[in-house]
Amino acid sequence: MPIIMRLDRVMADRKISLKELSEKVGVANVNLSKMKTGKISAVRFSTLEAICEALDCQPGDILEYQKDDSAHPPETP
């Protein structure tokens, strides 16, 4: 998957626990845990906004695009 979740890194930088973030954002611990481990396929903008508000960060701090080179083999000259 070319989109990587970096929520765990941002949470560690901010020294905030999953429980505390869950309370601030209003999202269940289990759902945040899935986000933290990257085991999700979608995230609502409202949830992303609440997380960014709670962690004082930008969406790009949490989400990272990683190019998947295996999907497009290099061209041969």
Short structural summary:
The protein is built from five helices and two strands, in the order βαααααβ.
Count of domains: 1
Largest sheet: 2 strands, antiparallel
CATH H level, superfamily name: lambda repressor-like DNA-binding domains
CATH T-level topology = 434 Repressor (Amino-terminal Domain)
CATH domain class: Mainly Alpha
Number of strands: 2
Estimated radius of gyration: 15 Å
Low confidence ranges: none
Number of helices: 5
Helical percent range?
A: 40-55%
Oligomer: single chain
Compressed to H and E, one letter per element, the order equals EHHHHHE
Portion in strands: 5-15%
Please name the CATH architecture. Answer: Orthogonal Bundle
Q: Order of strands in the sheet with the most strands?
A: 1-2
* Coarse shape: elongated
The overall average pLDDT, rounded, is 90
How would you classify the helix and strand content by structural class?
mainly alpha
Report, as a whole number of angstroms, the end-to-end distance: 29 Å
Outline the structure in words:
With 77 residues, the protein is mainly alpha-helical. It has a single domain, classed as 434 Repressor (Amino-terminal Domain) (Orthogonal Bundle), CATH 1.10.260.40. It contains 5 helices and 2 strands. It is elongated and about 55 Å long. 13% of the residues are buried.
Task: Spell out the blueprint of helices and strands.
Layout: E1 3-5, H1 7-14, H2 18-25, H3 29-36, H4 45-55, H5 59-62, E2 63-65
Antiparallel strand pairs: 1-2
